Amino acid sequence: MKEIGGYIEYEYNHGKMLHEDAIKLNCGRRAFSYLIKSRNIKKIWMPRFTCSSVIEPCIKEKIEYQL
Fold this sequence. Notes:
Blueprint: H1 28-38, E1 43-45, H2 52-60, E2 64-66
Parallel strand pairs: 1-2
C-alpha cells in the first residue's frame, strides 16, 4: 500500500523539476509559515474549521489570528 500525502518523494524524482527557481518546502504548514514571514503578515482571519496545524505557524510567528 502506498502512503498518501506527506513529503514529496524527491528520491524517486529523476527528471527535471517543473520550476527550478522555486522555493522548495516540504509541507503546507511550512509554506504558510514562509508566506507569513515573507509578506510580513501581522494579522489574519481564518475559517472556524481550520486545522490546528495551520494555527501553529501563527502562534510561532506571533501573528494575531481570528477564527
